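Trying the structure run again after the queue cleared.
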Amino acid sequence: MDIDTHDLETKAGIPPEALVTHGEMMRIVEDFKQANDERLTSIEKRRGDVLLEEKVARMNEAISTHQRQIDTLTVKQARPPLASERADAQTHDAREHKSAFDIYVRSGESAGLRALELKAMSVGSNPDGGYVVPPELERAIGERLLTISPIRSLAARREISSNLYKKPFMTAGPAVGWVGETDPRAQTTSPTLAELSFPAMELYAQPAATAMLLDDAAVNIAEWLASEIDQVFAQQEGIAFVTGDGINKPKGFLAYTTVANASWSWGSIGYVASGAAGAFPASNPADVLIDLTSALGTGYRQNGTFAMNRKTQSAIRKFKDSNGNYLWSPGLQAGQPATLLGYPLAVDDNMPDIAANSLSVAFGEFSRRYQ
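Done. Tokens:
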């Protein structure tokens, strides 16, 4: 029996263009490894070859280009459609609200929407008085952001209805000990708790539309809004999640106090120095990456993820272990992330470039330490 694998892969959610690009990238990766091995051999013999250096650099950039194309195609395929806009999937009130919202966006005035919002306010459906945006559009934008923003997809997420979320953390657990079945149990000390507050900030966008577009009844306004907003929202979120100062925006995980990992304390971020100013060590550069992963406790390391920008990834792509095996590997299938030391690698171009005192590589279980 003949099976069309192309059709199966498309049904599995992988666009055929991504499969072609992924195949080309895998071929280039093998060529890159061979060329880089030749470059390293040339350096060891103290006969640096400029042509080899340029060849490796070109192939390194080609791998990054193919990865960007795969990421773009995968994100495009993963964006959820506004399926809930089907009339049979909505209640009467939801259809009425969607229709009024559509008129409001097109004309800037809708008595029906205003009446619905007043009705929602009177029944207390929302502390702020109703929902201006139809719920299905709000969910669609949130789901699309999840496929675009690297840190949003890694971090813990919580939906709230107020403007502040408070989360208690146990910084020191209760004392424990082993006893026999009939031995008395001494009273243990109480756990030490701390509390983190997450104020809800507002991210807004004002997409531009022509009068012709708004007058066109065939244009799906909800779909147009979602497609216009998801990219710009993701860009702003990406910056804030990494380096945001916390003023009217989220506080980025690199904005917290950083200390040498040996001096780590609650409320700070531990770091492992590379040992070279603005670079990795010339000898055994991969060792510092191993030190970084080993700095975390076992409970936080097993589901850890690396985060770095594309320039840093290009530099690390050349690293090998003591047995001559490359530490970086492309995803085995289209849509899967590359791995480093066996851990997933998230590429976020908001991460700093390699420089003196920069925090260019992050590693950890983001879902347990960033909300």
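Confidence is low (pLDDT under 50) at residues 1-12, 83-89, 118-131. Worth checking whether this holds up in the mutant runs.
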